[in-house]
């Protein structure tokens, strides 16, 4: 097969990451088998290809594949499984099941060397394999091997893409049976953190509205549910080579190339609530840690409400400057003072051909936008602050629709200035 270049038994398995920081997928010692004859031509006719990294999932992979087989969509789709470093009977389960499935399945079974044996590399190889099989106008999707996608998962992803998105991030729901076994304290902690997350995201939606990603939406960037056009996947450079958090890193890479991203609440997948997972630092580790005791701080991506509002306002105002709507010396100077970045640098950064890259650089360099943690003990107060900011924004209804109109619209002014 041309999927794997040169002789499939030649080492090295992988090359070191390139300058761009992504996997160079050249020679891979592996076993490849498929549920269909001539898989390369069959997969070229698939409108969507779902890539799944799999490691020791004998208990879950059958339900994962059966859920994919029961999709309500009417477009042809296929599945690529990247079995990596499996020491259980996962391969046997897959071999037994795939001849009975209605969609074509390609299996790549390999053993990655220790330095590459992680969730990030495995998903990257699975997605790259799918990308090489795909037709130019294909849609790539990915989920987790312990997940069960909803029957309309593919259809809901495609609907969001047809509505104008290039990327769709779906929601991961914890298996209800697993969730029922978790202590009430853990469930309450998660609900409070999720509520605060929604408040911050609503602030972002009002201060920097995105027509492709309107409210209501969610904030998850989970590998359990991502769909992306092949063009956007290539433009972003593929899945970043990171051992953990490759899903969030991929979304960030897509943002930097101005991909249109939709966080679709209707795109859903059920994932297990196991406490022994496959990715170090992943969901299972988080659940196990919080079973022992509550975290002192919220998730690292959450921040104090006032700073979140300032970030959202500054991004919206920067977007208007970048688009040419407010590219005046007064606006540049104001943004320079708020971001604490020299005006010449602000001007140069906003001259980028891509706003996503311009904002990434501006945000990374601004002392004013340095991420600060939220301590769990401060959550009630921060939720109060977030609601006060939203009340203030609701009194400025024009700005909810059109975004920040100028320096005086900053959430740091008036009633929203609460610490």
What do these coordinates show?
It is a single chain. The protein is built from 16 helices and nine strands. It has 419 residues and is an alpha/beta fold. The protein has a nine-stranded mixed β-sheet with strand order 1-4-3-2-5-8-7-9-6, with helices on both faces. The longest helix is centred in the middle third of the chain and has 24 residues, at 184-207. The model is unreliable at 1-25, 398-403 and 412-419 (pLDDT under 50).
Quick recap:
The protein is α/β, with parallel strands linked by helices and about 425 residues long. Helices cover about 40% and strands about 15% of the residues. It folds into 2 domains: about 30-290, Spore Coat Polysaccharide Biosynthesis Protein SpsA, Chain A; about 305-415, no CATH class.
Keyphrases for this structure?
disordered C terminus; disordered N terminus; nine-stranded mixed sheet; 419 residues; alpha/beta; 2 domains; single chain; 42% helix
**Would you identify the CATH H-level superfamily of the largest domain?**
Spore Coat Polysaccharide Biosynthesis Protein SpsA, Chain A
Strand content bin = 5-15%
Strand order of the largest sheet: 1-4-3-2-5-8-7-9-6
Predict the CATH topology of the largest domain. Spore Coat Polysaccharide Biosynthesis Protein SpsA, Chain A
The counted number of beta strands is 9
Strand-helix topology:
Elements (H helix, E strand, L loop, with lengths): L29 E5 L4 H6 L3 E7 L6 H9 L7 E8 L5 H8 L7 E6 L8 H15 L5 E4 L5 E2 L3 H10 L4 E8 L1 H5 L3 H24 L18 E4 H7 L9 H11 L4 E11 L11 H10 L12 H18 L6 H11 L3 H7 L5 H11 L13 H16 L2 H6 L17
Parallel strand pairs: 2-3, 2-5, 3-4, 7-9
Antiparallel strand pairs: 1-4, 5-8, 6-9, 7-8
